[in-house]
Design a protein that fits this description.
Helices cover about 20% and strands about 0% of the residues. It has about 55 residues and is mostly helical.
């Protein structure tokens, strides 16, 4: 499961992880990735074929 959350600072992040997330029944462990900023948002382009696939004429 992936959970995206925002914390005010490191202390708030620690409180969220240790005090709330890990207190949820079934949560065994957590892994934390920190993003300092989001400067580039890249999507994957979807290129559709001119004719539907799988139909032969």
């Amino acid at each position: 499961m992936l959970l995206k959350l925002y914390a005010r600072d490191n202390e708030h992040l620690m409180e969220l992880l240790n005090g709330r997330i890990q207190a949820i029944p079934g949560v065994i462990s957590t892994e934390t990735l920190i993003s300092l900023e989001q400067s580039i948002s890249r999507g994957v382009p979807i290129i559709l074929p001119e004719k539907p696939l799988g139909k032969k004429k």
